[in-house]
Amino acid sequence: MDKKKEGKEKAGRFQSWLDGETDIYAGVMETRPQKEYEPSPYFLRQQEKDRRRIAERVNNVEHNKEYRFFKRVYRVLAVVFALSFIVLLVMAVSWLPPVGQAANPDNNEVSARYIENGLQETGSVNIVTGMILTYRAFDTFGETNVLFIATCCVMVMLLVDEALLKKQGADNDRKYEPKNDAILQGMAFVLCPVIFIFGIYVILGGHLGPGGGFSGGAVMGAGLILYVSAFGFQKTQRFFNETVYKTAKITSLVMYGLVGSYFYITGANGLENHIPLGLPGHILSGGIILPINICVGIEVACTMYAFYALFRRGGL
Amino acid sequence: MEIIRNFPAVSILLCLFAGIVSSGLKAKAAKRLNGILIGTEIFLNLCTLYYTTVTGEAFVYVMGRFPAPWGNEIRAGVLEALLALFVCVVMLLSLWGGERQLQEKIAEDKIFLYYVLADHLLCSLLALIYTNDLFTAYVFVEINTISACGLIMIRQTGRTIEAAVRYMIMSLLGSGLLLMGLCMLYDLTGHLLMSNIQEAVARLHASGEYGVPLTVTIGLMTVGLAIKSALFPFHTWVPDAYGYSAASSAAILSSLVSKGYIFLLIKIIYRVIGFDVFHDTKIVNVLFIFGLAGMIFGSLSAIQENNIRRMIAFSSVAQIGYIYMGIGMGTQAGMLAAIFHIFSHAASKSLLFVACVGLTDASGGSVKFQDLTGAAYRNKTAGAAFAAGSLSMVGLPLFSGFISKLLFAQAAVQNQGKMLPALIVLALSTILNAIYFMKTVIRIYTPAQTGYEGRTAGNPKLFTAACVLLVVLNLHLGCLSQSWENLIMKGLGMFA
C-alpha cells in the first residue's frame, strides 16, 4: 500500500481504489473463496432413487385409471352422503318441539327451579353463572380442565427446547411483523391497561351481570397478546415468564379444585357449608362463585397467552 | 363404611389434582406421583367394589348441595366399580411395560407431560364410567379425546403426528355427533341426568310422540360413540394411531380408551334410552352387521400386514367388532358376552403391545416380520408373554379369549334370527385370528440364521412384572370366569 497516498485527501484514496491499488474491504471483511459444492455419492444415489420412486408413485396417478375412477366415485359419494345426512338432520330438527312454546319438554321443573330459586340458593344475580358454577360446578371444573389439557397438548406439539429458543433470539419470532412499531406501541400503551382493568371487572362481576371467568379471562388474555405483539417477548417476560405462568396456572386450578371438592363433599354428605352466600348484588356474595370465577379467569388468561406464545415461538 | 360412598368422587378428583400438580414437576417426580396416584386409585375402587357387592345395590352420589335433576351426580354399582378397578390396574401395568421406551423415545423435557396426560386420561375414564349425567360424560369425553391425542403424538415422528391428526379428526367427528344427539335429547326430554331422561324417553316411547327425532337422536349418539371406539367402517385411524405411538400409549389407547366409549354406549343403552326402546329402534341390527363386518375385515387387514404393531392394531378392529356383535344381539346374554370381552380384550391387547416392545427392542428396533425371526429367544419373557397373549386372542382354553368366544357362541345360540351369521362369522374370525397370531408366534420362535446386535442387557424389572401380571390377569379371567360373570350380571342388574 502506498503510504504517501494514504495520508492525502479523499480524492486521492478514491483514485487509488479506482486504479485497483487498494482494496477498502481488505482486513475489514472476512473474504474466503467459495468451496465448490460436492454432494456425496450416497446423497446422489439417494436423490436419484427418490426421484425415480416419486416419478413412479406420484406422476403415475394421472395415468392410473383405477385411481381416477376411485377418486371420482369417492367425491360423488361424499357429496351424496353429506347431502343425505343434511336432509336427515334437517328433517329430524323439523320434527323437534317448536321453539318458544310453553308446553315444550324443556320447560320443566329443572329450569323452573334455576329461574325461581336461583337467586336464593346460589346468591348470584346472574342466573347463568349461578347455574354453571353452583348447580353444575363439577361440569365446569371438567371444562376448565379441558383448557388445561389442551395447553398441555399444544406444548407436546410445539414446545421448543429452552437453549434453542435463546439461540434463535428475539428477531426470529417476528420475521413477518414490524418490530418496535410506533403506532402499535402507542396504541398498546393506551389500550392494555384499559383491557386488563376491563377483564378484571368482567371476572369480578360475573355473578352480578353478564360476564364471568371464561369471558373475563379471554379479555385479559387478549390484552396480554396485544402487549406481547407490541413490545416483544423480552419485555413481557419481565412480568410474565414461564415460572409465573406455571405458578399462576397451577395455583388457580388447584384452588378451584379445593373449593370445588369442599363444596361437593360437604354437599354430598349433608355437612354445613361454611362459605357464606352474602347479600345478592354485592361484590362479595354468591358463595363459591366469586373465588371460582377468579380461578377460571386466571386459567383462561394463561391458556390464551400460552397458545399464542407457543404457536409464535414455541415457548413462553 | 358410609365413607366409602365418597370414594368414586374422590378418585376422579384426585386424578385431576395429580395431573394439574404434575404439570409443574420434573419428569421423575411426575412419574412417582403417577405411580402413587394409580396405587391410591386401585385402593379406592377396590373399596367401592367391596362396598357395592356387600350392600348389593348401586348408590348415587350428589356432586354438591343440589340433588338430581338440578345438580351433577355420579353413580356407582358393581359393574362400574369393577371396570374402574380394572382400568386402573391395566393402566398401571401398561405404563410399567412401556417405561423404558418412554425414557428413550420421548424428548427429555416432555416426559412430565406424558404423565400429565396419563393422569387426565385416567380421570376421564373414571368419570365416563361413574357418571350419571350425560353432559358430564360429554365434558370428560372431550378430556379423553384431547389427552389421547397428546399420548399419540408425544413420541414425535412424522407418522405419529399424521396419526394424531387423523385421530383428532375422526374423534372430533364422533364427539360432534354425540353432542348433537345430546342436544336433541335435551330438547325432547328437558333433562341431562340419565335416570330422568330414561323416564321421559319411556313416556315418549309409550305415547309415540316425537318418534322420528328420538330415533335420529339414538342413531347419532350410537354412531358418534362407534366412530370414537373404532367400529369397522370408521377404523381407518386405528393402525397408525396404535402402530407408531409409544408402546404404553398404544396399550392404553387400544385396551382402555376405546372401551371407555363402549362402556358409555352400554350405559346409554341401559340407563338413558332403556334396553327395550333401544331394541325397538332396530339400531341393534345395524351394530350387529357392522360388528360382523369388522370381525372379518379387521382380521383380513391384519393378515396382510408386515408390521407387527400395525397387525396388533388391526386385530383390535376385529375385537371391537366382537364387542359390537355382542351388543347387536340385543339380548342380555349378548350384552354379558360383550362386557366380558371388554375385560378380556383389554387384558390381552395390553399384554400384546407390552410384549411387542420387548420383541422389537431385541430385534434392533425393527417392527418388520423378517427382522423378528427368533426374537423370542433373544428376549424370553417378552416371547412367552406374546405367545400367551396370542393364545388368549385366538381363544385357547384357560385363557380369557376362550371364555369370551364361548359366551358369544352361547348368546348366538339363544338368539333365533342371528344365530347362523353370528356362529359362522365367529368361526371364520377365529380361524383368521389363528392365522395371523400363530404366524407371528411361529416366526418369533424360529431360530434366526443371522446374528443380531440387539439389546443384550436384560429386561427392566417393571417390564417383567408387567408381563407376568398381565398374563396372570388373563389366566384369572379365563380360569375363574364364573366369578367375573357373576359380578357382571350383578352389575347389569343394578343398571335398571
| Helix content range of chain A | 55-70%
Radius of gyration of chain A: 32 Å
Question: Low-confidence runs of chain A (pLDDT<50, min 5 residues)?
Answer: none
Oligomer: heterodimer
Q: Which percent bin holds the helix content of chain B? A: over 70%
Structural class category of chain A: mainly alpha
- Name the helix and strand elements of chain A from N-terminus to C-terminus, one letter apiece: HHHHHHHHHHHH
Number of extended strands of chain A: 0
Mean pLDDT of chain A: 84
N→C terminal distance of chain A:
54 Å
Total count of helical runs of at least 4 residues of chain A: 12
Query: How many domains make up the coordinates of chain A?
Result: 3
Order of helices and strands of chain B: HHEEHHHHHHHHHHHHHHHHHHH
Largest sheet report of chain B: 2 strands, antiparallel
Strand arrangement, largest sheet of chain B?
1-2
Commentary on this structure:
The complex is a heterodimer of chains A (316) and B (496). Chain A contains twelve helices and no strands. Chain A has 316 residues and is an all-alpha fold. Chain A folds into three domains: 32 residues, no CATH class; 41 residues; 204 residues, no CATH class. Chain A starts with a helix and ends with a helix. Chain B is built from 21 helices and two strands. Chain B has a two-stranded antiparallel sheet with strand order 1-2. Chain B has 496 residues and is mainly α. Chain B is globular. Chains A and B meet through helix 4, helix 5, helix 7 and helix 11 of A and helix 1, strand 1, helix 5, helix 6 and helix 7 of B.
Please summarize what this structure is.
The complex is a heterodimer of chains A (316) and B (496). Chain A is built from twelve helices and no strands. By secondary structure, chain A is mainly α.
Describe the SSE topology.
The complex is a heterodimer of chains A (316) and B (496).
Chain A: H1 3-6, H2 10-19, H3 41-57, H4 65-95, H5 109-122, H6 127-135, H7 137-158, H8 162-168, H9 182-204, H10 213-237, H11 242-268, H12 289-313
Helix pairs in contact in A: 5-6, 6-7, 7-11, 7-12, 9-10, 10-12, 11-12
Chain B: H1 7-22, H2 27-55, E1 59-63, E2 72-76, H3 78-97, H4 99-105, H5 111-130, H6 134-153, H7 158-189, H8 194-207, H9 211-228, H10 238-244, H11 247-273, H12 275-280, H13 283-304, H14 308-328, H15 332-361, H16 375-378, H17 380-394, H18 400-414, H19 419-444, H20 461-479, H21 481-495
Antiparallel strand pairs in B: 1-2
